[in-house]
Design a protein that fits this description.
With 338 residues, the chain is an alpha/beta fold. It is built from 8 helices and 14 strands. The structure holds NADP nicotinamide-adenine-dinucleotide phosphate. NADP(+) binds at residues 12-15, 158-159.
Length: 338
């Protein structure tokens, strides 16, 4: 496969660091690698036994880059991604900046890989909670058409970036030493607590994070009438988001059928043996790419309705791995065109 010049914007962040690991693991074909950041500019990073220095990102950073992986916040992505595209790069953006832009494909490779071909320079990586839910739900949707999703999420602190992860660890240490907690990354203490707010509130009482599941789910599944009711909660877990999901389908899906469909699905592992205390848990899904699905059962309160529990590493499948899978599709499409 042709080697490409690859740029990683946000190389020292929680997602950026995972990207470097996954590029190595998947043996992504790289010619030149450029690592960009802001405060961490000047820091040395090892990749494939070679030392790289993080450079401060500016307008000229993207010259000669074929693909730019963006792992910064949406404000910075809005400024720099269009510059990267103008410089000739295909941008794969982890932020929410362009996800709902009609010209920008929003892709989960296990669900809608063909959408990558429609890009005009930018391809968006969906929200992490949405990716994990849709890897589990797309096979069921294909069989029985999902009409409505009701979800509650249990989201790890690393979903809020490296400083949030450090804060949970620090609070746990401070608790053990009987010290007063410092609170910076979240509005409240997160150690030994839950916070039922992720992102800011919309006028309708839902948070932006909750509305992402609705809007992004519709776009990825090409299902404009899909109904979604979601509650997102931050929990004191380092990584891997978990979700309790109930779906209402046009065609009935029995738990047995659901297990069969999910056992064959790409990117899914069925862990569903309650008698042996086997179900998905964030500690088990950390540091790997599959979405684990279990607790599959009929919703006894409604017709054609099924309940399940899933968990997945949101730094990997919910962000870094998904973006690199998209980059691999971009490379395949380049090869097909030749
Ligand atoms: N964390 C997750 O689970 C997750 C999942 C899906 C999507 N995302 C999205 O992925 C993006 C990155 O998230 P994260 O969790 O990795 O955040 P993070 O840990 O806070 O890292 C942010 C990165 O952005 C860089 N940065 C900040 N200002 C910059 C600037 N002006 N110019 C260049 N680089 C700059 C930082 O570099 P310096 O340290 O050098 O300043 C750092 O590398 C966000 O859009 C987030 O919403 C995150």
């Amino acid at each position: 496969m042709k080697k490409v010049n690859l740029c990683l914007l946000g190389a020292s962040g929680a997602v950026g660091k995972e990207m470097l690991k996954i590029l190595e693991e998947r043996d992504f074909p790289i010619n030149e690698l450029k690592l960009l950041g802001n405060k961490d500019a000047g820091k040395k990073v090892k990749f494939r036994n070679k030392e790289y220095t993080i450079e401060k990102a500016d307008k000229k950073s993207f010259k000669n880059m074929d693909i730019t992986l963006v792992a910064v916040g949406s404000d910075i992505s809005k400024k720099l991604s269009p510059i990267a595209v103008k410089s000739g790069s295909v941008v794969i953006d982890n932020s929410s900046a362009f996800r709902m832009d009609k010209k920008v494909p929003l892709v989960v490779p296990e669900v809608n890989p063909e959408d990558v071909k429609k890009h005009k320079g930018i391809i968006a990586n969906p929200n992490c909670t949405t990716i994990i839910a849709l890897v589990a739900l797309a096979p069921l949707h294909k069989y029985g058409k999902i009409k409505r999703i009701i979800a509650s999420t249990y989201q790890a602190v690393s979903g809020a970036g490296k400083e949030a992860m450090e804060e949970l660890e620090q609070q746990a240490r401070d608790w053990a030493e009987g010290k007063k907690f410092e609170i910076n990354a979240f509005k409240y203490q997160i150690c030994f607590n839950l916070i039922p707010q992720i992102d800011s509130f919309d006028k309708n009482g839902y948070t932006k994070e909750e509305l992402k599941m609705l809007n992004e789910g519709r776009k990825i599944l090409h299902s404009p009438n899909l109904k979604v009711n979601c509650t997102c909660v931050r929990v004191p877990v380092f990584r891997s988001h978990s979700e309790s999901i109930t779906i209402e389908t046009a065609k009935k899906i029995t738990p047995k059928k659901a297990r069969e469909l999910l056992a064959k699905a790409k990117g899914v592992k069925v862990v569903d043996n309650p008698a042996k205390f086997q179900y998905p848990m964030p500690l088990d899904t950390t540091n790997q790419d599959l979405v684990f699905v279990g607790r599959i059962r009929e919703d006894i309160s409604a017709k054609n309705s099924l309940t399940l529990w899933c968990a997945g590493d949101q730094l990997r499948k919910g962000a870094a791995t998904n973006a690199i899978q998209i980059a691999e599709l971009v490379l395949e499409n380049l090869k097909d065109k030749k």
